[in-house]
Amino acid sequence: MLSQIAYALPFLAEGFALTLWVSLLVVVLSLFAGVILGVGLVYGPAPLRWAVRIFSDTIRGIPILVLIFFVYYGLPAVGVHLQSFWAAVLALTLFKTAQVVEYLRGAVASIPKGQSEAAMAIGLTFRQRLAYVIFPQAFRRFLPPWINGVTDAVKGSALVSLLGITDLMQAINQVIGRTYEAMPLYILGALLYFAVNYALSYASRRLEQRFAFIRE
Amino acid sequence: MATSSNDSPALLDIAEVSKSFGSVEVLRSVSLKVAKGEVVTVIGPSGSGKTTLLRCVNFLESYDSGSIRIDGKEVGFRDGGARQRRSERDLAGMRAETGMVFQGFNLFPHLTAAGNIMLGLTKVRGKSKGEARSIAEHWLGRVGLAHKADSLPAELSGGQQQRVGIARAVAMEPKILLLDEITSALDPELVGEVLAVVKSLAEDGMTMVMVTHEMAFARDASSRIVFMADGGVSAVGPPKEVLAAETTNERLRTFLARFRASQF
């Protein structure tokens, strides 16, 4: 049994690498898109605010699985054909982006109005106020829910296996298909997901301490 | 120190400023001139428009009509009378000419005491970090907090935070310092240390407009008192004159009576 699993390890490692790669792409792309749209939601003109609000509410109201299938199987109907890998990345990124928008909005909204006013009073421009006063503070509120969201993204990436992409989940299922060793392989898979997410949570706690308003 | 605005050109010229929040008229054609070096305290019951007036001076609030000029330059609107709001960059430049100290301190919690003061110096005044640091240290020394330069706001008492707030405002070398009930959020035993700093700035000739409930301070430290009621200036003049006017001014009499009653 162990020899069979050992034999499959390189294959599992490839799947694990793909899981990390999908997660990384989704996390980075959704961070950029979410922050830009989030700033639009908080500070943009009314039409932009409405557009982002509709986008975010719609996406967050759809199960992520439906979103994945919609992008992969649905979009070809309107002429958009994506490889399964990119369809999965797009669907997960849309989902994450909507969440990042909300984290950002909440983080910025939690900064008292007096902070903006104090920044205005010393003559900072809008961009300077965001860069030096609002964002450094909002960042601290943004971080914990965002890291939570990142771990969700890593776990959620297992759904890409449903499009036949050989990520960690799919690799495990294939090895089980050959070896019938379900229990040890799922445990191994769980441990790998856990290791990644535990490392992320740990890094998050360290970051929060590093940026606390009171020194330890 | 000038005692009246008539003998020298006004540094701050508020002319017939009116403002409404919805149907509530918070400022009714308020006019006030403040000369260089004057300390003007604004008193009055809450809801009388004191704070709103102060916030109009650095355009944290807009107003519906009238004009506010500092050194002859319209604060919030473009020159030329068309009541066109200044650009974001222009507004920032105008606001840098006034300093403001807030009731709730509003220090930036992620920056140290020195960092709070240095932000405007480096980003608005374009000073180098080293230069800004030495200016910050100078002002922190002036407010008695030289040893707290590297403390975060959360590590300071309310009185200390407010003194940093004052240092942050004056370090920018504003033409006018606006003080908005700066001792109202402080424990009584911390009020003195903050007022002492304001007094020393007044002695240096800093032009100040101060909304306050500290009547003793208004009486002793200001060149003029403005009494506001119902969104308008109800009485204005040297402290003795204004406080004596309660015999003829009904609103002022009520206000002062209520004030005295609260001083057990």
Q: What is the CATH homologous superfamily assignment of chain A?
A: MetI-like
Kindly identify the CATH topology of the largest domain in chain B. Answer: Rossmann fold
Backbone shape of chain B? globular
| Assigned CATH architecture of the largest domain in chain B | 3-Layer(aba) Sandwich
Are there runs of chain A of 5+ residues with pLDDT below 50, and where? none
Mean pLDDT of chain A: 91
- Regarding quaternary structure, how should these chains be classified? heterodimer
Rg calculated over all Cα atoms of chain A: 21 Å
Share of residues in helices of chain A:
over 70%
Helices and strands of chain A, in N-to-C order? HHHHHHHH
Summarize the structure.
The complex is a heterodimer of chains A (216) and B (264). With 216 residues, chain A is mainly alpha-helical. Chain A has helices spanning 2-43, 46-60, 64-74, 84-109, 113-121, 126-156, 168-179, 182-210.
Describe it:
The complex is a heterodimer of chains A (216) and B (264). Chain A has a single domain (2-210), classed as Orthogonal Bundle (MetI-like fold), CATH 1.10.3720.10. Chain A is mainly α and 216 residues long. The model of chain A has no long low-confidence stretch (mean pLDDT 91). Chain A is flat. Chain A contains 8 helices and no strands. Chain B has 2 domains: 1-97 and 176-264, 3-Layer(aba) Sandwich (Rossmann fold); 107-173, no CATH class. Helix content of chain B is 36%, strand content 23%. Chain B has 9 helices and 10 strands. In chain B, strands 6-7-8-3-9-10 form a 6-stranded mixed β-sheet, sandwiched between helices. In chain B, β7 (176-180), α6 (188-203) and β8 (208-211) form a beta-alpha-beta unit. In chain B, α3 (113-123) crosses α4 and α3 runs parallel beside α5 (158-170). Chain B is globular, with a radius of gyration of 18 Å. The model of chain B is unreliable at 1-5 (pLDDT under 50). The A-B interface holds A 112, 114-115, 117-126, 128, 132-133, 136-137, 140, 211, 213-215 and B 58, 60, 88-89, 92-93, 95-100, 102, 104, 106-110, 119-120, 123-124, 152-155, 168-169, 172.
